[in-house]
Amino acid sequence: YGEQNFRGESRVCPVSPGGTLVSSFSFAMKRVGIVGLLHESNTFVAGRTVRSDFEADLLLRGEPIRAAMIDAPHEVGGFFQGLAEAGMEAVPIFLARALPYGTIEAGTFMALVEELLEGVHAAGELDGILAAPHGATVAENHPDADGYWLERLRKELGAGFPIVATIDPHANLSQRMVDATDVLIAYTTNPHLDQRETGVKAASLLSRMLEGSVVPVQKAVFPELAINIQTQNTSEEPLRSFYSFASECCDVEGVLSHSIVLGFPYADVPEMGSSVLVVTDGNPDLAAELSADLANEMEVRKEFYEPGFLSISSAIARVCESEQAPVVLLDMGDNVGGGSPADSTAIPHEWLKCGDGAGAVVLFDPASVEKAVEVGEGGVSHFSMGDPSHPVKAECVVRSLHDGKFHESEARHGGFSSFDQGKTAILETSDGRLTMMATSRRMAPFSLSQLTAFGLDPGDYRMIVAKGVIAPMAAYQPVAKGGFLHVDSPGVTRANMRKLDYRNRRRPMFPFE
Description:
Elements: E1 2-4, E2 10-12, E3 25-26, E4 31-38, E5 41-42, H1 51-55, E6 58-61, H2 63-69, H3 75-85, E7 89-97, E8 101-102, H4 106-122, E9 128-133, H5 145-157, E10 163-167, H6 175-179, E11 183-186, H7 195-211, E12 216-221, H8 239-249, E13 255-261, E14 275-281, H9 284-300, H10 312-321, E15 327-331, H11 346-354, E16 359-364, H12 366-375, E17 380-385, E18 392-402, E19 405-407, E20 418-420, E21 424-429, E22 434-439, H13 449-452, E23 463-466, H14 472-476, E24 484-487
Parallel strand pairs: 4-7, 4-9, 5-8, 9-10, 10-11, 15-23, 15-24, 16-22, 16-23
Antiparallel strand pairs: 1-2, 2-3, 6-7, 12-14, 13-14, 17-18, 18-21, 19-20, 21-22
């Protein structure tokens, strides 16, 4: 006969051929909670990240998480896929994400953590948790913000409760994060193209834990070094061969996963830096041995992590010498994905001074958008664009106005497909040498659709500015006929770490000492 238990699960009590009740089995589906709190916090930015920044991006509870993320190329989308493949019930609980910016305001952070924990408490009986911290979150009251909320989650659920989490390889990993979880897995690509796959892997590992087929043990090692953001492209040297070494080193029986954590240099916290982590099946000695091997190899290669730095003027000169176009200039000092203001005009100024041909740039500039709306499409007026302390002042025609919404069909850095940069104006200087897309919301250049959806053809330009370092390369690769140039532009995300004013980092640390 069958009956329903207090969770609504079907329970079947079979009988022997002779009619005698022999046993009672529960076929209850395992229930796994899904939580996430993601932010990449730049402590060199003067502003603070507040609740409205999360509300403008993602702040969801319960079933709306499933609707928003189930098909997304994001680790949370991978959680849903992996749990479905394992025959487990996904219980979406809490998900918050804001575009990278300054340190999270203390009250905002504590409120988000409490809402996450309240959601877990209200979710009913759970068998495991899949968590999505970023790994480089900083709050005013908790520099190791991810370590703090994961530790709170562990205390809420108990020492033996299965918790598997994913992290961005731009995490500043802490021992606190490791201690609070059973498994941590970082994406393996930068630009981040395998976020969904990482989520599926995390769900699969949790499934194996719940089956009792594996008992994960993890070990992290923290070398005294920080890999420069400019050399963090995992498909190129010096990282390509290091990742191959790590895969070969960890391709042994008993290893469940290994992670290379590149680090996030724009957070001035003690955890800032690169690290490695190995997860084994019940073998702490093997985890310690392999993580030590990876850390040693990372240190052996450290001299290769420091690149040469190209000035703006030198980059413009190279564009003018190039026989192919466009050349994409990566504006590293105004890296929106690293928390920058997205309004730097350093490169556009140099282009108007020395450039030859047409250039294009996206600027966060709500004031220019509003003026363009007043002027109207086809209208001409004088604009003061971009950084108020160093604006581009020019007579411009308003080419077009848009709502700022666009879509990306491929897996791209960041793991999202739908974007909204608010009201958007396409402005072009009267001489045609510079086209500026002014947006009313900051938007990272993770999709080529940011240009093409609003009528801009990359082939019309000799130079395009992308405000990022590695992340835009996947999106712009199809059109960058003249290649990419990393530019050592000024700003709160500049690539030359020696020019950032660290007060709290570990010492000694390469490349500083």
